C-alpha cells in the first residue's frame, strides 16, 4: 500500500499524567510525538504498562491530555465543539481488546451496531436495518445474527460485532487496541485478515496496538515502540525488524519465540534483567538505562532526543 | 528412555443441565522421564481437562472420568485414594498455572507457600524448610531472596510471581511438572526469562515437563515432542521437527499457517481456518475437523480416522493418510507429497 504524504493525525508533545495520590504522578504518556499518515497502519508495541493504550485512548478523546495536542485533519481534537466534535467522534472509532466486556449484554446485535447510526442520524427505518445487515455481511456474519444477544456468540464472532459497530458510522480512523490478543490462534488470523480487507476496501487508517510483535510486523506499515511512556523507536516495519537500533527494541525482538524450531535452536537471545520499572515517578534520563547493557553515565542524566537517524527511522538513544 | 506417565483411552465428560459435554474423547499418550512434551490446541479442545484428570483435580460432579487409565510411575492414578493422591500432587506431580496472581494465596507469605509442601510431604522442620525456600527463590532468579521470602504475593511483579509459582512447584523435586499456559499472562521479555528458567531447571533437576500452550513460538522454543489436540482428541503427534517440518494433519497445517512468519509480507493473506470448533455436546460422528477442512472427503463425515503412522513416533488421525486417499501436497513444511 502506498503511503499518502499528508498526516491524518499529528501528535505533538502529548502528555497524559495520572495523579495516584500522595503527590505521586504516573506518567503514562510523556512527550510523545508521532504522525499517522492517511491510509496507513501504524503499529504501537510495548510491554504492559508502557502507556500504549493510554496513548490510543487520548487520541480518540477518551482522556483529556495533561499537555500537548492531537491534531486530526489539522484541528486540535481536544478543543473541538458542536458539529465539529460530532464529526470527529464519528470519524475516529475504537475496537477493544476484550470482546466479552466491550459489548452490552442487554442489547441485541442490531442495537449495538445501530446505536452509532442513530446518534449520528445517518440512516432511518428501512435504510437503517438494511445498513445493519450490510455491516454484518461485511464482517462475515449474516442477518440472522441481528436479533441475537452477545452471549450467543464466540469470542471471534464478538470481535466481528465490535468491528461492525466501529464501521457503522463510516469512520476514517480506527484505534485497534489489542483486537486479537483474547482470541485463539486460528481465529486471530480470521480477524486480522478481515481488518486488512476492510482497510483496503474502505481506505481506513489504523493505529494497531499490540504486544505480539510478529502480528504487528505483518499488519503495520510503520511501527512505534514504547517504553515507560516514551516512544523509543519509530521505523518502517521492515527496517525495525531488519535493523532495530534501540537496545530495548533489539531485546524485545530477540525475546519473541519464533514458530520455527531451527531458528529457535540457533538464536542468541538478549535477556533483559528485571522487570519494567514503575511509571510512577520514572527515572531521570533514559527510561531504559537501568536494564540496558550499553548504559553510559549520560544515560541516567539526560533524556535522549528522539532523532531521525536514517530516513524515516527515528530513535531516542544516546548511543547514536 | 523410561516411561513416567502413560495415559490410555482417557474420556472425561461434564454433566450439565443442557446435556453431557464430552470434553476429552479418548486420549492416549505417554511422557518419558526428563522430556518436554507440548500440548497445543485451541481453547476448549480438552487440553486443560486432560491435565486436570492427571492431577485428579476435575470437580466431580459435574465431571466424570468415563474411561481410561492414567499410570504414573507404575501406579494407576485413577485408583488411588484421595490421601494417596495428595501425596502425589504435592511431591511427585506439580503444576504451574496461567495466572500467577490468582494461583498464589494472597494472605500467605511467599516463603510460607514454598515451605508448605516441604513441611507436609518431606516432613521437614519449619526452619529447614524456610532455608530451602530461600534457596528455591535464589534458584529461580529472584534477587534479595532473604528479604523476598517474607513478602506477600502482591509485593511481587507478574514475572516474579510466576517465578515464585515455579519455585513452589519444584520445591519437592517432582518427577513431572505440568505447566498450563505458564507465560501467556506475561510480557515477551519476561516470557523469554521464564522459558529460559524452565529449560535450565529441567537440565538441573531432570524433571519431565508437559507444557500446554497455544503459542507455537513457545513450543518451538521448549518442546521435544508435540501433541496437537482438537475437539477432545489428539489428532497428530510427533517430534518437534515432525510437527513443524513435516505436519500431516490439515488442522496442524492450519495452525502453523495462521501465525505470521517473520518473512511474510503484507500483500499476502494469512491462512485462516474458517469456522469454529464443533459443539462438544454432540460431537460429530466422523472427524471433528471435517466441517472446517478443505480436504474433507465423504468418509471424513462418517467414520473417525484411525491413527495412521507416518514414521517412528509420528502419527496423525486423518483419512488423507489412508493408502486409498487422493494424494495431497501439504501447503506447509518441508514434507513430501502424501
UniProtKB/TrEMBL annotation, chain A:
CDD domains: ABC_NikE_OppD_transporters. Keywords: ATP-binding, Nucleotide-binding, Transport. InterPro entries: AAA+_ATPase (IPR003593), ABC_transp_ATP-bind (IPR050319), ABC_transporter-like_ATP-bd (IPR003439), ABC_transporter-like_CS (IPR017871), Oligopep_ABC_C (IPR013563), P-loop_NTPase (IPR027417). Residues 9-253 form the ABC transporter domain. SMART domains: AAA. GO terms for molecular function: ATP binding; ATP hydrolysis activity. GO terms for biological process: peptide transport; transmembrane transport. It comes from the Bacteria. Belongs to the ABC transporter superfamily. This is Oligopeptide transport ATP-binding protein OppF.
UniProtKB/TrEMBL annotation, chain B:
It is a peripheral membrane protein. Residues 5-256 form the ABC transporter domain. GO terms for cellular component: plasma membrane. One of its GO terms (biological process) is peptide transport. Its main location: membrane. InterPro entries: AAA+_ATPase (IPR003593), ABC_Ni/Peptide_Import (IPR050388), ABC_transporter-like_ATP-bd (IPR003439), ABC_transporter-like_CS (IPR017871), Oligopep_ABC_C (IPR013563), P-loop_NTPase (IPR027417). Signal peptide: none annotated. GO terms for molecular function: ATP binding; ATP hydrolysis activity. The keyword Transport applies. It comes from the Bacteria. The keyword Transport applies. It holds the Pfam family ABC_tran. Gene3D superfamilies: P-loop containing nucleotide triphosphate hydrolases. Keywords: ATP-binding, Cell membrane, Membrane, Nucleotide-binding, Transport. PANTHER family: DIPEPTIDE TRANSPORT ATP-BINDING PROTEIN DPPD, OLIGOPEPTIDE TRANSPORT ATP-BINDING PROTEIN APPD. Belongs to the ABC transporter superfamily. This is Oligopeptide transport ATP-binding protein OppD. It comes from Fervidicola ferrireducens. The lineage of its organism: Bacteria, Bacillati, Bacillota, Clostridia, Thermosediminibacterales.
Amino acid at each position: 500500500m502506498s503511503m499518502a504524504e499528508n498526516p491524518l493525525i499529528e501528535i505533538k508533545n502529548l502528555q497524559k499524567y495520572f495523579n495516584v495520590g500522595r503527590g505521586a504522578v504516573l506518567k503514562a504518556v510523556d512527550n510523545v510525538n508521532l504522525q499517522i499518515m492517511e491510509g496507513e497502519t501504524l503499529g504501537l508495541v510495548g510491554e504492559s504498562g508502557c502507556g500504549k493504550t493510554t496513548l490510543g485512548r487520548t487520541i480518540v478523546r477518551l482522556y483529556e491530555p495533561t499537555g500537548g495536542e492531537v491534531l486530526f485533519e489539522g484541528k486540535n481534537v481536544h478543543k473541538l465543539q458542536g458539529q465539529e466534535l460530532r464529526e470527529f467522534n464519528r470519524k475516529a472509532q475504537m475496537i477493544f481488546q476484550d470482546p466479552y466486556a466491550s459489548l452490552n449484554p442487554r442489547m441485541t446485535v442490531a442495537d449495538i451496531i445501530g446505536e452509532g447510526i442513530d446518534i449520528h442520524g445517518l440512516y432511518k427505518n428501512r435504510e437503517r436495518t438494511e445498513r445493519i445487515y450490510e455491516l454484518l455481511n461485511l464482517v462475515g456474519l449474516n442477518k440472522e445474527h441481528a436479533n441475537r444477544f452477545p452471549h450467543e456468540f464466540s469470542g471471534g464472532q464478538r470481535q466481528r460485532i465490535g468491528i461492525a459497530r466501529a464501521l457503522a458510522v463510516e469512520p476514517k480512523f480506527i484505534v485497534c487496541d489489542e483486537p486479537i490478543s483474547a482470541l485463539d490462534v486460528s481465529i486471530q488470523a480470521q480477524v486480522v485478515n478481515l481488518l486488512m480487507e476492510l482497510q483496503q476496501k474502505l481506505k481506513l487508517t489504523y493505529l494497531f496496538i499490540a504486544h505480539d510483535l510478529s502480528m504487528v510486523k505483518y499488519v503495520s506499515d510503520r511501527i512505534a515502540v514504547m517504553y515507560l511512556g516514551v516512544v523509543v523507536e519509530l521505523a518502517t516495519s521492515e527496517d525495525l525488524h531488519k535493523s532495530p537500533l534501540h537496545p530495548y527494541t533489539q531485546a524485545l525482538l530477540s525475546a519473541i519465540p519464533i514458530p520455527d524450531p531451527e531458528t529457535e535452536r540457533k538464536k542468541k537471545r538478549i535477556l533483559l534483567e528485571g522487570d519494567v520499572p514503575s511509571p510512577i515517578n520514572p527515572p531521570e534520563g533514559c527510561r531504559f538505562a537501568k536494564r540496558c547493557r550499553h548504559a553510559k553515565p549520560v544515560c541516567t542524566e539526560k533524556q535522549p532526543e528522539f532523532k531521525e537517524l536514517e530516513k524515516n527511522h527515528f530513535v531516542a538513544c544516546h548511543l547514536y | 528412555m523410561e516411561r513416567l506417565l502413560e495415559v490410555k483411552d482417557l474420556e472425561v465428560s461434564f454433566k450439565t443441565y443442557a446435556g453431557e459435554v464430552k470434553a476429552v474423547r479418548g486420549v492416549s499418550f505417554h511422557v518419558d522421564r526428563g522430556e518436554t512434551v507440548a500440548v497445543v490446541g485451541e481453547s476448549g479442545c480438552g487440553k486443560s481437562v486432560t491435565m486436570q484428570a492427571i492431577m485428579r483435580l476435575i470437580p466431580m460432579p459435574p465431571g466424570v472420568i468415563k474411561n481410561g487409565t492414567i499410570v504414573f510411575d507404575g501406579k494407576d492414578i485413577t485408583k488411588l485414594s484421595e490421601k494417596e493422591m495428595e501425596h502425589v500432587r504435592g511431591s511427585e506431580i506439580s503444576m504451574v498455572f496461567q495466572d500467577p496472581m490468582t494461583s498464589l494465596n494472597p494472605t500467605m507469605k511467599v516463603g510460607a507457600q514454598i515451605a508448605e509442601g516441604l513441611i507436609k510431604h518431606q516432613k521437614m522442620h519449619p526452619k529447614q524448610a524456610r532455608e530451602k525456600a530461600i534457596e528455591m527463590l535464589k534458584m529461580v532468579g529472584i534477587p534479595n531472596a532473604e528479604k523476598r521470602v517474607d513478602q506477600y504475593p502482591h509485593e511481587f511483579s507478574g514475572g516474579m510471581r510466576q517465578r515464585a509459582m515455579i519455585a513452589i512447584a519444584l520445591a519437592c523435586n517432582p518427577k513431572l511438572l505440568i505447566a498450563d499456559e505458564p507465560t501467556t499472562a506475561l510480557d515477551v521479555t519476561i516470557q523469554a526469562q521464564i522459558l529460559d528458567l524452565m529449560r535450565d531447571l529441567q537440565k538441573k533437576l531432570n524433571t519431565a515437563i508437559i507444557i500446554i500452550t497455544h503459542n507455537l513460538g513457545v513450543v518451538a522454543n521448549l518442546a521435544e515432542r508435540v501433541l496437537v489436540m482438537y475437539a477432545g482428541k489428539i489428532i497428530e503427534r510427533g517430534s518437534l521437527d515432525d510437527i513443524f517440518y513435516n505436519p500431516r494433519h490439515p488442522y496442524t497445517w492450519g495452525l502453523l499457517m495462521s501465525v505470521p512468519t517473520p518473512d511474510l509480507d503484507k500483500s499476502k493473506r494469512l491462512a485462516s481456518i474458517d469456522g469454529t470448533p464443533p459443539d462438544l455436546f454432540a460431537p460429530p460422528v466422523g472427524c471433528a475437523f471435517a466441517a472446517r477442512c478443505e480436504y474433507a472427503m465423504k468418509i471424513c463425515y462418517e467414520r473417525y480416522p484411525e491413527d495412521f503412522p507416518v514414521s517412528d513416533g509420528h502419527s496423525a488421525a486423518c483419512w488423507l493418510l489412508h493408502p486409498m486417499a487422493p494424494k495431497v501436497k501439504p501447503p506447509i513444511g518441508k514434507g513430501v507429497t502424501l
